């Protein structure tokens, strides 16, 4: 029998380490972040924008299958609330980073 310990906080601090603009369809750039409470750096998020909405795509790796270019996620969220909490924190951190300082 296994036991799963779960700790959850949707108040998540995310810091943007770098942002590289790139413009192709909805893709507007690439960013790297750190989650200080976990001591975790994650590189390769894509910033997308369409009709005033912004969202992040998770880092992925490219592979070929049947002569077709595909992408597989490197990391995933276990649930929608966690994904949305991260998106919100990361987009706030990106806006702060692009302004060049604190809120």
Give an overview in words.
The chain has a four-stranded antiparallel beta sheet, with helices on one face. A two-stranded antiparallel sheet has the order 5-6. It has one domain: Arylsulfatase, C-terminal domain (2-Layer Sandwich). The chain is globular. It has one helix at residues 80-99, and strands at 15-24, 27-35, 40-50, 53-57, 60-65, 68-73. It starts with 14 loop residues before the first strand and ends with a helix. With 103 residues, the chain is of the alpha+beta class.
How many runs of DSSP E, i.e. beta strands?
6
Identify the strand order in the major beta sheet. 1-2-3-4
Secondary-structure element order, N to C: EEEEEEH
**Coarse shape:** globular
Could you name the CATH topology? Arylsulfatase, C-terminal domain
CATH C-level class? Alpha Beta
Number of domains: 1
Secondary structure elements and pairings:
Layout (H helix, E strand, L loop, with lengths): L14 E10 L2 E9 L4 E11 L2 E5 L2 E6 L2 E6 L6 H20 L4
Antiparallel strand pairs: 1-2, 2-3, 3-4, 5-6
In short:
The protein is α+β, with helices and mostly antiparallel strands.
Keywords:
103 residues; alpha+beta; Arylsulfatase, C-terminal domain; four-stranded antiparallel β-sheet; two-stranded antiparallel sheet; 6 strands; globular
